[in-house]
Design brief:
Chains A, B: Keywords: Dioxygenase, Flavoprotein, FMN, Oxidoreductase. 2 copies of one chain form a homodimer. By secondary structure, chain A is α/β, with parallel strands linked by helices. In chain A, 40% of the residues lie in helices and 13% in strands. In chain A, β1, α2 and β2 form a beta-alpha-beta unit. The model of chain A has no long low-confidence stretch (mean pLDDT 93). Chains A and B meet through α9, α10 and α14 of A and α9, α10 and α14 of B.
Chain lengths: 371, 371
């Protein structure tokens, strides 16, 4: 699976793994891919600083990347406390009522209440970039548009290539015009923020549109070596996998008071590819989530429309914290792609990587017999 | 691209082309694929009889197939005139008002008014099967579920394999249990009746689920050799392409009073992959259509919900006829998949087939260098 892109990054396989877990990111880098740490959860730059120091020390000198979130359209700036005032009372009442109906208890008094994700505010994301560039990122990616020009320039000045996700050809061309080096063509089937065009159609469209002016990774629906072979057939130079790592053994995802996987992980393990939904209720922008009693409550008649970014996540932040604490797999708030149907086991990253590579090679050998 | 499936059907390439045009179907068969004639438009068995006789005479002795539509859940039976009484006045008024607003003129007095598609009534579809089996079909496919057991048995008694479309693993397993030989895994990106799981995820899921008990074709989003290589990477034994043939030079699609392509064809040529929508307004079941002023009118606030099958198509049949006659590319009612973004030229089938095969071979050669 080694190719020019892998060569350029000094990695063995062109497998880029997006994950909010530094443990998973480091394990992917150690196993020959490129672990890309999602930074949106770091409201505090010092916490990111400590985590990247940990990454430096736990990747055997192998490269890793960071993913920030800078929406192309700048959302309302402000501290959480001011933004909170913009949330309608009707929305708060709906959230409270729904949690009651779903049997989700309030937080206990000794827990600090979540304030919500602010990492997609440009002010916060810029601080994250500054922190990251003091370490040795091999890539800075942006999940919601091109980063601002000065950030692209700063990354390039540090010799760091910039990637951006695209759900349509227009986004991809705009990224290239803005100086982005790697376009991540992300299909409808992907988890998290996503568009409406499926990978099978989107990837070759973007490959043809950007030509030699950028490298293209395929994202969405990838969790096996056959799917990597399909992505490379479509013309991508590598793959960007996200949801797939949510069931990595290295990922301490969610809350588990007992032994074994957390409620979120059990929900992921049990879900089929039909058990996701594309909805604005997580962040205010369309994102694919695990379909649960929580997401279904928002699509019932009488439920309010989701608020715009960043208000929606501020609205639901404490609700999500309560949901995690309740440890009920039927009430989970979690971005996940349609590949969730193939995530049926908690597995170490190294085992998954070995399987991806072996199945890719078997697939190419099979195709080659047809020629 | 020749493989065991192609060998079994006595064709050169495992490219199955669904099309309502006998001219396109015959051209695909002559070019080494398997043309599959969509029969749903034949309300009159004698018309189908004549068309299949034409197919027999124009395929150079090469195999072809037929596609019937038998919904797994039997819709209300009845003659068009009786079913008409079940359509609410509110729906008729909405259709009339919308056509007025879109500037679609009434039919001229000398035109016979369309009665709507009845081919998805089991009574009509059974007559179509009887007609088909008097000819030499190499395949009988069903777009909306498994055919009834007696029809599968009848086909098998004639040595004809049966195919059925599946949008989820559950459908595929049900087809296999019912005796279906070929499962067509049809992704979200496909035109016409379609589910919500994208091909990248659906195809390998269905391949793994059915194992050796059925052959799997991939459908949805396929219009290039790279996409065929991707489908075969995912484990499919062949591809089922539908939308792609709508811009075949052999297809007299729509009405053109002047020279050049019809309004429908111009709309298809101009559309990007973003210009489709999944909606129930065509038949009563979710189907992907070209996004036009007609489809958008149905999604505006105040528009009625689509009626169940078969009533919805009876409701809109004359509207569709008026829309075709109006020759306005902005007001078109046409099923089409996301691959429409790659359909930018009216081309003879033989040219398209040659390109598909050449690009497939180049793709496999490219992948093989990575191994």
């Amino acid at each position: 699976m080694h190719n020019a892109l892998a060569e350029k990054f000094g990695i063995q396989y062109p497998i880029f793994a997006f994950t909010p877990s530094e443990h998973v990111a480091a394990a992917v880098s150690r196993a020959g891919g490129l672990g890309v740490l999602g930074c949106v959860r770091f409201n505090d730059p010092e916490e990111l600083e400590a985590t990247l120091t940990w990454m430096d020390e736990n990747t055997d000198g192998k490269p890793y990347g960071v993913d920030i979130v800078m929406p192309a359209k700048v959302p309302t700036e402000g501290a959480a406390v001011d933004l909170d005032k913009l949330i309608p009372a009707e929305h708060r009442a709906f959230v409270d009522r729904t949690l009651d109906e779903l049997g989700v208890p309030p937080l206990s008094d000794d827990v600090e209440h979540a304030t919500g994700v602010l990492g997609w505010l440009h002010s916060v994301a810029r601080a994250q970039v500054d922190v990251a560039l003091k370490h040795r990122p091999a890539l800075i990616a942006n999940a919601l548009g091109s980063p601002p020009k000065d950030i692209i320039d700063e990354a390039h000045a540090h010799g760091v290539p910039v990637a951006a996700l695209a759900g349509a050809v227009g986004h991809a061309l705009s990224h290239v015009a803005n100086g982005v080096d790697i376009v991540i063509a992300q299909g409808y089937e992907a988890g998290g923020h996503t568009g409406e065009i499926a990978s099978m159609v989107l990837v070759p469209e973007i490959v043809d549109a950007v030509g030699d002016s950028a490298t293209v990774l395929a994202a969405g629906g990838i969790g096996s070596g056959r799917q990597i072979a399909a992505a490379l057939s479509l013309g991508a130079s590598g793959v960007w996998m996200g949801s797939y790592w949510l069931t990595a053994a290295e990922y301490k995802l969610g809350s588990a008071s007992g032994e074994g996987p957390s409620a979120i992980q059990r929900a992921l393990l049990d879900a089929s590819s039909s058990d996701t939904v594309r909805s604005r209720i997580y962040s205010g922008k369309p994102a694919r989530l695990l379909k649960t009693k929580w997401t279904e409550a928002w699509s019932k008649p009488g439920a309010p429309d989701a608020l715009p970014m960043p208000l929606q996540n501020l609205l639901v932040a404490e609700a999500h914290q309560r949901i995690v604490a309740s440890e009920n797999p039927e009430v989970v708030a979690m971005p996940a792609g349609q590949i969730v149907g193939r995530m049926n086991e908690i597995r170490p990253v190294a085992d998954s990587m070995a399987d991806l590579v072996a199945e890719f090679e078997a697939t190419v050998a099979r195709l080659n017999k047809l020629k």
